[in-house]
Design a protein that fits this description.
single chain; FAD/NAD(P)-binding domain; alpha/beta; 15 helices; binds 3-acetylpyridine adenine dinucleotide; five-stranded parallel β-sheet
Length: 533
């Protein structure tokens, strides 16, 4: 039966979001014998992999590092066709999971949660959808992802444009025919880089509006051979062990040797070897000093700048595409498959926004401080109101009638990234550490399932972070962040891509294993730092 036709609206658990996290949370809730309903605004499951169906969208994580680890049968059944799976395949995978584990009967699609309110008497959450439907549950789990609230800058005259405006994070499901069109892309982050590379060949003319050039590096994708497929399957136990042990849940360790053990010449040869590797090896498996020592970071950044220069025919244009205003690794590295070569094409041009900023959008296109451009399509690859946006855009009201948006007006406050004081039984099932999905999301999901089991087994009504534990966590997180290179750049990591958002590191910057150990320790000590009522 279609869940939306079901008369019941009272559940043990409501989960918002049917993406990577929400699907597993649903699986575990059902396994625990709980009544559960998942609401998702999308027309299909998959979360980020449903919405980001823009041309060129692809994993930057190795495919074998991305599948769920919790079902041996699933690992055995699923074949990845490419080392870095393209979006359609990943969406297919998540649909396969939904069918394979019969998850759909508890998922209501096209169901956007607009508000949620905690009732202090019943100690339950009531949830309201944009359709007017209501439901209630003891536990509310926000499995909304960190990058699901799309962000479009409020350019003057944005509604005046008569052509087609698109955001990559809300790409039309039926696709868009860009052939023969004059297309603008605003934004050159990981999304813009994938999209630009893919569409440049097809459009009549592509104009890229760039504010900050990035240290883009080759993805080096290729098909998975049958022998490699077999190898993944035979070694998943080792692969998963490695994912749990590495600092960011990827298949990479930083080198155990110091950069200073090598001469400058030897380091250069070493960088060449790194460069030839696929994926994030360039970022996560080099000398540790690249991420801790300014001189070594600058040396590696210089190496990458030269790699960029070598790929662009016009040296003046090349300088515009070379990042110079932030250290390597302080923004997420876009991985690419022919991105810089795109700028050697006659039908592609670059507008540098720091030189000639956008003044306004017009009926026919974009006006910069230098000139007016006419377009058929404007694509906003301008990113997301990350981490907090998906939560604060819903009207989630806690014990004192305070909303999450109000509580976090001066910065996000949680304990362990999982619960926030004043919002009992509201679990934030997003991966709040710097860590590859879904291996780290699985840990969060399992922790939440464990906390719910604990509350119910002890006949309790609720679990809530104490203000003291939360304050200590916020302080500890800020102290760690103060040592991070990430604060040297403006990015979604720092919330600084959103005008007016408090500038602070939004993700917990300790290693994923340290984060996991802390969460496990808290649970093992009877949920220290939480009020159980
Ligand atoms: O977003 P971004 P994204 N005027 O915020 C520019 C994940 N992801 O969607 O750098 C002009 O990185 C902005 O400029 P600047 C991944 O975690 C994963 O690309 O702020 N330009 C930047 O160029 C990633 O980190 C995969 O100066 C404006 C761009 O828009 C995250 O998604 C693939 C502007 C936004 O870049 C976000 O990436 C793709 C303005 N007012 C993405 N405002 C996978 O591999 C913003 N910009 C799975």
């Amino acid at each position: 039966m279609n869940p939306s036709n079901r008369p019941d609206s009272t559940f043990d658990v409501i989960i918002i979001g049917a993406g990577v996290t929400g699907l597993y949370q649903l699986y575990l809730a059902r396994k625990a014998g709980l009544s559960v309903r998942v609401f998702d605004a999308a027309g299909g499951v998959g979360g980020t992999w449903y919405w980001n169906c823009y041309p060129g969208c692809c994993f930057d994580s190795e495919s074998e590092s991305y599948g769920y680890t919790w079902s041996k049968a699933l690992l055995e059944e699923w074949d990845w066709t490419e080392h870095f799976s393209p979006q359609p395949e990943t969406e297919r995978y998540l649909n396969y999971v939904a069918d394979r584990f019969d998850l759909r009967r508890d998922i209501q699609l096209n169901a956007r949660v607009q508000a949620a309110r905690f009732d202090t008497k019943t100690r339950r959450w009531s949830v309201q959808l944009t359709t007017g439907e209501r439901a209630s549950a003891q536990f509310l789990i926000a499995a909304v992802g960190v990058l699901s609230a799309d962000y479009t800058p409020e350019f003057v005259g944005i509604k005046d444009f008569k052509g087609l405006s698109l955001h990559t994070g809300r790409w039309p499901r039926d696709g868009v025919d860009l052939r023969g069109k004059r297309v603008a892309v605003i934004g050159t982050g990981p999304t813009g880089v994938q999209l630009i590379t893919k569409i440049a060949r097809d459009v009549a003319h592509l104009t890229v509006f760039q504010r900050t050039p990035n240290y883009c590096a080759p993805l080096r994708n290729r098909p998975v051979t049958p022998a490699e497929q077999q190898h993944f399957k035979a070694t998943y136990a080792e692969i998963h062990q490695q994912l749990r042990e590495t600092p960011a849940g990827f298949l990479y360790h930083f080198d155990t040797r110091s950069a200073f053990e090598f001469s400058a010449e030897e380091r250069l040869a070493y960088y060449e070897k790194l460069w030839a590797l696929p994926g994030f090896a360039k970022w996560l498996s080099g000398f540790p000093e690249v991420m801790t020592n300014r001189a070594i970071n600058e040396e590696f950044a210089g190496f990458l700048r030269n790699k960029i220069r070598a790929r662009i025919n016009d040296p003046v244009l090349a300088e515009k595409l070379v990042p110079k205003n932030h250290p390597f690794g302080s923004k997420r590295i876009p991985l690419e498959s022919g991105y810089f070569e795109v700028y050697n094409r006659d039908n592609v041009s670059l507008v540098e926004l720091l030189e000639t900023p956008i003044q306004r959008m017009t009926a026919s296109g974009i006006e910069t401080s230098e000139r007016a451009y006419a377009f058929d399509v404007i694509i906003y690859a301008t990113g997301f109101d990350a981490v907090t946006g998906p939560l604060t855009r819903m009207n989630i009201e806690g014990v004192n009638g305070q909303t999450l948006g109000e509580k976090w007006a001066d910065g996000v406050r949680t304990y362990l990234g999982l619960l926030t004081a004043g919002f009992p039984n509201l679990f934030i099932a997003t991966n709040s550490a710097f860590c590859n999905y879904p291996v780290c999301a699985e840990m969060v999901v399992e922790w939440i399932a464990g906390a719910i089991a604990h509350v119910r087994a002890n006949n309790l009504a609720s679990i809530e972070a104490t203000p003291e534990a939360e304050a200590a966590w916020v302080e500890h997180s800020a102290e760690l962040a103060s040592h991070s290179f990430l604060s040297d750049a403006n990015s979604w990591f720092m919330g600084s891509n959103i005008p007016g958002k408090k500038r602070a590191l939004l993700l917990y910057s300790n290693s994923a294993p340290a984060y996991r150990a802390k969460c496990e320790e808290v649970a093992a000590h009877g949920y220290q730092g939480f009020t159980l009522q």
